[in-house]
Amino acid sequence: MKRIILFAAAALLSTTIAFAGNHANGEKIYNKACLACHMQGVAGAPKVHDVDAWQKRFSLAMETVKKQNPNADAKTLKTKVMALLVQTAQKGKGAMPPGAMCPNCSAKDYQAAIAFMMSKKK
Ligand code: HEC
Question: Per-residue pLDDT for 98 more than 90?
């Protein structure tokens, strides 16, 4: 049983890191709009390339998404988690203002920036 749980956790982790998103565009958006807070972790913001910190955010969002979609498969859940994180950037959270200081960002732009911040430092 323990083995299965470990395996599931590892699978979850690898999906997080491999989030789809245009890396170059993500880096551009990050540099323009997100860096101000996410580079140093201002006011508790998860830091760029801090995979553990982002994993925690991902897991919390996953709990919410699973409650809302108890029968969804893993791929659907992952897509919905990313959509929820994008929505959070659009609505704002805590010290992060609505729009996350990127008034012209599309949902795809936010997604790319989030995927970039979640990724390991190259
Ligand atoms: C003014 C500072 C600031 C800027 C600019 C900013 N953020 Fe944040 N962000 C935060 C803070 C603070 C948190 C933690 C909020 C909390 O949990 O209370 C956060 C959390 C997040 C989260 C996690 C939300 C969750 O559900 O836990 C995402 C995703 C995110 N930011 C995306 C972005 C993106 C994408 C950009 C750039 C387009 C951006 N942020 C720009 C301050 C900022």
Answer: yes
